[in-house]
From TrEMBL:
Transmembrane segments: 60-86, 106-129, 141-162, 174-203
Keyword Transmembrane assigned: yes
InterPro entries linked: DUF2510
Domain DUF2510: 12-41
Name of the molecule in the record: DUF2510 domain-containing protein
Keywords of this entry: Membrane, Transmembrane, Transmembrane helix
Keyword Ribonucleoprotein annotated: no
Biological source species: Agromyces rhizosphaerae
Length: 204
């Protein structure tokens, strides 16, 4: 007696359309879907994105990674020395001028405004990044709405999906963002020490 033959279905991917359309059609692993690839597409991503590391990214993802740290620049441009000198003055009239001086400082206004504008821009750039990946052939890019939870969540999810689709690469945004997070902690510590020094000078 011969042993029964085991038929293994192909893995999900783009294959020639069995109906003879000349296009590549997406095989789900169980059956044919209604999705057709344009000429040159393979494995969920186009050949160009699979052969170029730079094309795995694009400008939008780098803006998503870097933009949240832009408001921090305003912290170092505010005239904190003048503010604390007024706030710790023995003259009550001078103390009352401290918040006025702070809220009329252009750097402080930049800090406040960017705190509201930047999150909106990050969402818009993440949506643009997702649209770009779809144009390159990625069927289901990581959704931009994850930026509402955290930029870190979006960057990690987006990078992993691209890496799996392309077969390699696509993880650089994670490492850049982690580097910026570490740098942010270092800068925050230095800024705190600087502010404490200004307050000490103002008081004593």
């Amino acid at each position: 007696m011969s042993e029964p033959t085991t038929h293994v279905l192909p893995k999900p991917g783009w294959y020639p359309d069995p109906n003879g359309s000349g296009r590549r059609r997406w095989w789900t692993g169980l059956g044919w879907s209604d999705k057709y690839a344009e000429a040159g597409q393979l494995g969920g991503l186009s050949r160009s994105i699979s052969s170029s590391k730079q094309s795995l990214y694009g400008e939008w993802i780098w803006l998503v990674v870097a933009l949240p740290y832009v408001p921090m620049l305003g912290l170092f441009l505010v005239d904190w020395t003048q503010y604390f000198a007024l706030a710790t003055s023995p003259n009550p009239d001078m103390v009352e001028l401290a918040p006025v001086q702070l809220f009329t400082d252009p750097a402080y206004l930049f800090l406040l405004i960017s705190g509201f504008v930047v999150p909106v821009l990050v969402i818009a750039f993440a949506a643009a990044d997702r649209a770009r990946l779809r144009r390159l052939g990625l069927q289901q890019p990581f959704h931009w709405a994850w930026t509402l939870v955290s930029v870190l969540v979006y960057v990690i999810g987006r990078s992993v999906v691209v890496h799996q689709a392309a077969g390699r690469g696509g993880l650089a945004p994670i490492w850049v963002l982690l580097g910026l997070m570490v740098l942010n902690v270092v800068v925050a510590v230095q800024f705190t020490l600087w502010i404490l020094q200004i307050v000490y000078v103002a008081l004593f």
